[in-house]
Structure formats: C-alpha cells, structure tokens
Amino acid sequence: MIEIGHFIGGKRVAGTSGRSQDVMQPLDGSVRGKVALASAAELRAAVENAKAAQPAWGATNPQRRVRVLMKFLELVHAEYDELAETLAREHGKTIADAKGDIQRGLEVVEVCIGAPHMLKGEFTDGAGPGIDTYSMRQPLGVVAGITPFNFPAMIPLWKIAPAIASGNAFILKPSERDPSVPMRIAELFMEAGLPAGILNVVNGDKEVVDAILDDPDIKAVGFVGSTPIAQYIYARGCANGKRVQCFGGAKNHMIIMPDADMDQTVDALIGAGYGSAGERCMAVSVAVPVGQETADRLIEKLIPRVESLKVGPSTDSSADFGPLVTKEALARVKGYVDTGVQEGAKLVVDGRNFTLQGYENGYYMGGCLFDHVTPDMRIYKEEIFGPVLSVVRADNYEDAIRLPNEHEYGNGVAIFTRDGDAARDFASRVEVGMVGINVPIPVPIAYYTFGGWKASGFGDLNQHGPDAFRFYTKTKTVTSRWPSGIKDGAEFVIPTMK
Ligand code: NAD
C-alpha cells in the first residue's frame, strides 16, 4: 500500500488534514494506496514556500534555468519504464500508451529549453529623438495548475515546464485518481537541480481547488478537465483577478468523404475512437460518413474491427486498450450506451457485457458502435469519455460540416478525403480549434499551441508553444530617454511621433 502526501518545499510531506482517498488500480479494482486531500492551510504552506523561493529563481538567468529542464529530461529517460508502469497501473491505459503520455509531455519540456529565446523582449532604437522603447517579459510569481486524470504526465508537464522556465514558482494540483507520477515528476525536478519551493504538488479535491482560486498570492491558474469544472474555475479565478486558462471536454467529429481511402480511414478511426478506452479529450467519438453509400462501406468495415478489439489489463502488451479509470466511470459509460439504445440509435456492436477472466473486478468494457445516431440524442450532444463511437450519417458535405460547427464543443475535428479542395475549405470554415486532414487526432506538436474553441476552452491563450510563455509572463514596456542635457526645458504638449 502506498501513502501519498504532498510535495512542498522540495520534499514529500505527509498530509495533515485528516482527509484522504483511495488510489485504485483499475486493471483489477484493487486499492493501491491512499492519497491525502489537502486543506486550505496546507495549500497556504505551499504558497508561502513558493513565494519565498520565487524571487531568486526569477532572477536566475534563463539559460541557467533551462539547464534544469535538460537534466530533468535525462532523469526521466533513465526511469521511463518505471514511470510508464506506475502511470498505467493508476490510470488503466496500456503501458505503451502510458509511454506516449510521458513522451508528449517531454516534448513540451524540450521546446521550453528554448525559453531564453521565447522570453526575449522587443526593442526599438530611436523610437523618438533620444528615445528607445523596449519590452520585457517578467514572471508572474506564484502560479498554479489543476489537471485531469487522463494524462497524468503530459498535462502537468505542459504547465510546469513553461511556467518554471519563465521564472515562476508552480503549484500543481493533479488528479486525485492517479497522483503517483506527478509526485515523482516533482522529485525528479529537484534531483535535476530545481530549487526547493519552485515546484510544489498539493493533492486534493474541491477544497484545495477553491483555496487555490481564492489565494491572493497565486497569480495565474491553468486548468484542464471537464467543461462544468472548467467554467466554474474560470469564473471564480477571474472574479478574483487572476489570469485563468481552462480547457474542457470535447466531442470530436471525423468527417469521411466518399473519396477517402476506407481502409486507412477505418484504421485511423479505430485507434482514435478506442485508444486509451476513449478517455482522451482528442478521441474521435463521432464519425460522419458523407453519403449513404460511404456510410454503408464504413459500417461494414468497422463492425468486425470493433468486435475484434483486444481489451486487456494495462500490463498486457498486446491489448488495444485497458480498463476505464473508475467503477463510476464504467457505470456512467455503460449508462450512456443504455441511453443511446433507448433514444433509438442502432447499437451494432455492444461491449457492455465484456468481462476479463482473472480480472473480474477490473473496470472493463468492450468497444461499442452506434449507427444512425442523430444530433438530438444525448449520446451525440454529451461527452461520453469511453470506448463508444457514434456514426452520424450526413447526406452531403454541407450537412457534415454543419455538425461540428453547431456542436457545443469545439476541441478537435478531422476530415478524411483525397480532395485538397474539400480539405482546404473544411480547415478554413470549421468552427473547431484543432483540425486534422487525414490525421485523426490532430494534437499539435509542442512548438505550436493546443486549445479548443467554444465549450472546450475558456480564456484567450492556448497551452504550450508561444502562448504558454505569454500566459506565464507579464509584459513590461519601458520608454527610455537619456537627454543630451537640460537645455530644451520642460515640454507641455504630449509627445508624438509626428
Ligand atoms: P474533472 O473535471 O473531473 O477533474 C479535473 C480536475 O478538477 C481534477 O484535478 C479534479 O480534482 C478537479 N475537480 C473535480 N471536481 C471539482 C470540483 N467540483 N471543484 C473543483 N475542482 C474539481 O476531469 P477528469 O475526469 O479528471 O478528466 C476528464 C475530462 O477532462 C474530460 O472532460 C476531458 O475531455 C477533459 N480533458 C480536456 C483536455 C483539453 O485539453 N481540452 C485534455 C484532457 C482532458
């Protein structure tokens, strides 16, 4: 049994609130250990620590700061396998997929090694007579991140790396469902040379989140999770005068044009729809074949592929996907499948009764496939976050593009086609933040930015890429004059460039 407290002031500390929660192992439903749930007082201790450590870190030159990131990469690579194993055991995804979770985080760390360049200001020599204007990016001070269960390495790293590279101190509130990897990440950063207090991990639930949102010393909050919580955090954090960016839920469509290569499309759809048991914010959950003939061909090829998906424990290297994260998540997803049947969608593959011999208490279900889903159904409107794919048949391209455009969510979308003109029109007109052209999960590479539109994102700056440096720094603009002397006397008219 593992006991997880918090990481404050450069070391692991036990929780003192008296509240804790079980950390489960989804693959067999056993209890792995307990995680402490922090009180507001424990959060305050972390903030005090961070506040004391930040000025010296902020004053350290950026090239020295990023050497810590370089060393951190080396340390993670040395224990990649152990980290992936821990991640898979607490989350439920396969070990191969857990490695991808870590890798997509490391790629952002790699890009943040370029922070000295990203943090450069602007300079105009001779903006006026004897006047120079320049801008600089300064750290905000103490900043925080609140992250979801589904990428316990990647999303914390997307926030930690640009925040600390920019000279801030960071407080992470990871998901209470899979806290071990975020705790180890903090420890590895210390081993890499990060000063104590610059990265703190405070475990907990709503109580500590509210304390973060109300703490006057926390200047910015980055959140990733479900849309109702994203909206709540955005509203409360903004009302308290903080800089807030919140990324929420999704319902990602994949449009399949009649000219798409159907074998490639089905391969892409199977991986994007069912990988990680559909527990990805960029998972494809709606397939939109254009034309009845395309739909029939798609369904015919999809059915045997969904039926033959291999569900297994996270430790089985031949499994396509593992269990869902909790018993409640399993019940919720199965409940959605029941709802879809009641709403009149045609369940052509039913994975609800799947059990795995030897792992009867694990949170498993097989892949489900719905045909003839319509936009008025709850299974279309709401995020299911499980291995359930809905096929919505569209008569033509305009009907197809209208679906993601009118959907409440706008995280990711894809079009599969051989026609450059259709692809180009789609990329230009679709009302969604991240677009794939023959790419099913268009998560942008680390030096571009990641963010959804509409109910999938709140705030004006995206994650990683240049936006991350804008989010974690404030701009100061200096207008400087070194007069040649005092002979010109006082000026009473506003200076202009006329
Ligand atoms: P969640 O919203 O339940 O939890 C996210 C975080 O918020 C956790 O740290 C949790 O402790 C905290 N939290 C939960 N309830 C709270 C409350 N009432 N008050 C304050 N804080 C609270 O999300 P989850 O189940 O961990 O993650 C899955 C969701 O995250 C899905 O909706 C998925 O689409 C979304 N997600 C979005 C992105 C993106 O970039 N848009 C990426 C990954 C996941």
UniProtKB/TrEMBL annotation:
<dbReference type="InterPro" id="IPR016160">
    <property type="entry name" value="Ald_DH_CS_CYS"/>
</dbReference>
<dbReference type="InterPro" id="IPR016161">
    <property type="entry name" value="Ald_DH/histidinol_DH"/>
</dbReference>
<dbReference type="Pfam" id="PF00171">
    <property type="entry name" value="Aldedh"/>
</dbReference>
<dbReference type="InterPro" id="IPR010061">
    <property type="entry name" value="MeMal-semiAld_DH"/>
</dbReference>
<dbReference type="InterPro" id="IPR015590">
    <property type="entry name" value="Aldehyde_DH_dom"/>
</dbReference>
<dbReference type="InterPro" id="IPR016163">
    <property type="entry name" value="Ald_DH_C"/>
</dbReference>
<keyword id="KW-0520">NAD</keyword>
<protein>
    <recommendedName>
        <fullName>methylmalonate-semialdehyde dehydrogenase (CoA acylating)</fullName>
        <ecNumber>1.2.1.27</ecNumber>
    </recommendedName>
</protein>
<dbReference type="InterPro" id="IPR016162">
    <property type="entry name" value="Ald_DH_N"/>
</dbReference>
<keyword id="KW-0560">Oxidoreductase</keyword>
<feature type="domain" description="Aldehyde dehydrogenase">
    <location>
        <begin position="16"/>
        <end position="478"/>
    </location>
</feature>
